[in-house]
Specification:
About 35% of the residues lie in helices and about 15% in strands. By secondary structure, the protein is α/β, with parallel strands linked by helices. The radius of gyration is 32 Å and the shape is extended. The termini are far apart.
């Protein structure tokens, strides 16, 4: 309700007494523009069109997209906007000969009457099974009800499986937190004797996307086209504390992201940071090259049969639904990394340490700036002489080992399925003697890469770190190999070309290379 002045009220009363209920005419002789109000039919057509558009193009199945917990929400594709929907509405009304509201009224009616219809934001690392099932669901608009129900049941069955696996992960995490709360002396990550604590603990581990050093939040233009020194990230998270040990893997120490590297980091963690638990539970993603492979199972069986743990379970989250504790810690590191200038491994360690004020993230360098190896890599694939391969390993999600049956793995396809038993040892009567595999030395940087860092990246480092991150190469060319040309560019970073950085930018780079 609006408030008018006394003068205007008096004029309105005077006009009513003289002319009755008639529109007021301006003294200048003009006439007020006729205002067309929205009728009930106009509003009904807008709501009906948006609802019909959503039923045709939207994703309406509950639990289909991460980040939308409300089951009443309906999502439209990220390629659409309210303006694009309005344009199609305006065209449809023009073809029907009906009145179309303006875009401002269209938006207002949408926000007021249909707030549960929103647009999906672009996302990555989504479940391919969910996307395929959802596509089949919202493309089944004109199909018979039996076909629709079958597609819905298929997707709901997948979501129920995902929810069951997620609940199992939450249960293990809650059990670990309960153990940490019951123990009188606070638990701290650090060296503990194997099986020194009569409790069970849960850990999660994963790789993060590598970062590049040096890195500057105020990025120089030429650096966009170059490939700085690479640094990998591997995290081992103890949700009960919560704390995560982040292994900083320099490019010179990165042999691979394969099974031997992952197992070496796990072995170092249990020796250096483990809590000494007797019963161990672990979660990770479904990457077969790193986690779900024969060598990981052999290593866990090896730990149990030699008294390093009493029981071990290895659990895998459903592909596409693997967001868990390590991703949270990696996100904190990346937030701090984007805002900080980093020119060496020591500075990267400080970024990890200062990413939280409560000490959640702990840095652990694999090699230091002097090239000293701090985390040894072992060739765990040497166990092939003592163990057998588990058939159909990719079809199982849960594996269990116990010291009561050394060398035996109990596996399940899902959390609710029955366990199956398989003996991994080639000789059932003899347990292999305890021995560590041979050490894999760091591969180092090839001369071509060393010269590239020295010629192209060194100027972007701080004065104090140039001789640490990009030192002058001391290793000459191998006489047995063709002479190495000092490179002027490297095609290892397909990052595209910025607009507006065409000829002038290329001339600057070529001048700098010359």
């Amino acid at each position: 309700m609006s408030i008018i002045s006394g003068d205007k009220l008096d004029s309105c009363i005077k006009h009513y007494k003289e002319h009755g209920l008639t529109p007021r005419v301006k003294k200048s002789g003009g006439r007020r523009a006729e205002r067309r109000y929205l009728t009930y039919d106009d509003i009904k057509r807008v709501v009906s069109y948006i609802t019909s558009f959503t039923e045709t193009h939207g994703i309406i199945l509950p639990g289909r997209i991460p980040g939308f917990k409300d089951f009443t929400m309906k999502l439209l594709p990220s390629s659409e906007t309210k303006a694009s929907v309005f344009r199609s509405y305006d065209t449809a009304m023009d073809e029907l000969g009906e009145r179309a509201v303006k875009i401002s009224s269209f938006r207002q009616l949408w926000n007021t009457l249909l707030p549960f219809i929103v647009f999906c934001k672009p996302q990555t690392d989504l479940c391919w099974t969910c996307q395929q099932n959802n596509y089949q669901v919202y493309r089944s608009h004109n199909l018979p009800d039996e076909v629709k129900n079958a597609k819905l049941r298929k997707q709901l069955g997948h979501l129920q499986l995902v929810e069951a696996e997620r609940n199992e992960y939450r249960r293990m995490v809650a059990d670990g937190k309960g153990v940490a709360a019951e123990i009188e002396q606070p638990l701290k990550l650090g060296p503990h004797l194997p099986m020194s604590g009569d409790f069970h603990m849960h850990y999660s581990f994963d790789f993060a996307q590598q970062v590049h050093i040096p890195s500057d939040p105020l990025q120089p233009g030429p650096m966009y086209f170059l490939v700085p020194r690479k640094c990998g990230l591997f995290g081992m998270n103890c949700e009960a504390l919560p704390q995560q040990v982040n292994y900083l893997i320099d490019e010179s120490a990165s042999s691979s992201k394969g099974s031997s590297a992952v197992i070496s980091y796990l072995h170092h963690f249990f020796e250096t940071y483990g809590l000494g638990e007797k019963d161990l539970d672990m979660h990770c993603d479904n990457c077969s090259g790193q986690n779900k492979n024969r060598y990981m199972l052999w290593y866990l069986a090896w730990r149990v049969m030699h008294g390093l743990h009493r029981t071990v379970t290895l659990n895998f989250l459903i592909t596409g639904h693997t967001k868990f504790a390590p991703d949270w810690c990696f996100g904190l590191i990346k937030q701090k990394f984007r805002k900080t200038r980093v020119c060496s491994l020591d500075e990267m360690s400080e970024v990890v340490r200062n990413s939280t004020t409560t000490g959640v993230n702990i840095p652990q360098q694999v090699v230091n700036n002097d090239g000293q190896v701090l985390v040894r890599h072992y060739d765990w694939q040497e166990m092939e002489s003592d163990f057998k391969v588990l058939p159909g390993i990719k079809s199982y999600q849960h594996f269990r080992f116990t010291d009561k049956q050394p060398g035996t793995v109990y596996c399940k396809e899902s959390v609710d399925s029955e366990e199956q038993e398989f003996h991994l040892l080639k000789s059932k009567d003899a347990v292999p003697q305890f021995r560590m595999p041979s050490i894999i030395p760091p591969p180092g940087l090839p001369p071509k890469r060393q010269w590239y860092l020295y010629d192209q990246i060194r100027d972007f480092c701080s004065e104090e770190t140039r001789d640490i991150t990009c030192p002058r190469p001391t290793v000459e060319n191998d006489p047995a190999q063709p002479p190495v040309q000092r490179p002027t560019a490297e095609k290892g970073r397909s990052r595209g070309v910025k607009r507006g950085h065409g000829g002038n930018q290329g001339q600057k780079l070529r001048a700098r290379e010359a």
